[in-house]
Description:
Blueprint: H1 3-8, H2 11-26, H3 29-58, H4 70-106, H5 110-123, H6 132-138, H7 144-152
Helix pairs in contact: 2-4, 2-5, 3-4, 4-7, 5-7
Amino acid sequence: xxxxxxENFSDDEVEAVLAHELGHVQMLHVWKILGFSTAAAxxxxxxxxxxxxxxxxxxxxxxxxxxxxxxxxxxxxMILGLAFIPVQNSYLRRLEKKADIFAAQHIDSPNSFISAxxxxxxxxxxxxxxxxxxxxxxxxxPPISKRLRYVTTKNNKG
Length: 158
Ligand SMILES: [Zn+2]
């Protein structure tokens, strides 16, 4: 919640945004993201270990603990981190979708959610329909067109 939200949005729109955020709390998304990030870090370090061990031998570093190889280790970890961003974004978009559906199920009408999301998208200059590859690589929230579809799908009510 922020001052700009309270100033520029109606009570129903604030309620819709709050319902989305409460969905994150109710479904323990912070803990899930923490677990996901921890697993991702462990996998990244293991892959870096495997990759780095091969490269150090090829470059004649004495062993993996050779400080001369540290810049190379940093580069390997950076590349693995970049490669992992689309995977992480995919997981985050899935959680955001669940929070959107939660919000739709706990507010009176999807109209307040639709108007709140539309205003937020306009404020953030968001592209409502990005190319699929852009979404896969860069979006940690679903594009606005999909978010509006989640809350207007009939089987979300119940
Ligand atoms: Zn969210």
